[in-house]
């Protein structure tokens, strides 16, 4: 099996309040993330869900204690029609609760 080329993924998330969500979270910066976590795997696959959808899953390992963490989400691709016809847009959704995402920590967690 050929080794995967290194990649950098930057994702901007629109925060939404999830039912039963924990306290507010803070994120670590990209350098801090790279120092603490190692990307083990990143998968994407198409899904037939009415409109074009791409599902994704990232598996990272916490370098502090070798704990694996999985983050999942999906991207919905939309085309504009009528007088707004133009370039398609995409909405990125985080399906994993924020408090379970690698690189996000509860503000009062003391980490």
Describe it.
This protein is mainly beta and 111 residues long. It has a domain of 65 residues. It has one helix and six strands; from the N terminus they run βαβββββ. The strands form two sheets. The protein has a four-stranded antiparallel sheet with strand order 2-3-4-5. A hairpin with a 1-residue loop joins strand 2 and strand 3. The longest helix has 7 residues. The relative contact order is 0.24. The N terminus is likely disordered.
Task: Lay out the secondary structure.
Layout: E1 25-27, H1 30-36, E2 37-49, E3 51-62, E4 68-78, E5 89-94, E6 104-106
Shape: elongated
The arrangement of helices and strands along the chain is EHEEEEE
Structure class: mainly beta
Number of helical elements: 1
- The N- to C-terminal Cα distance equals 38 Å
Mean pLDDT: 76
Strand content: 35-45%
Largest sheet: 4 strands, antiparallel
Cα-atom radius of gyration: 16 Å
Q: Which percent range fits the helix content?
A: under 10%
Number of strands: 6
Name the poorly predicted regions: 1-17
**Biggest sheet, spatial arrangement of strands:** 2-3-4-5
Features:
single chain; 111 residues; mainly beta; two-stranded antiparallel sheet; disordered N terminus
Task: Give a summary of the structure in a few sentences.
This protein has one helix spanning 30-36; strands at residues 25-27, 37-49, 51-62, 68-78, 89-94, 104-106. 6% of the residues lie in helices and 43% in strands.
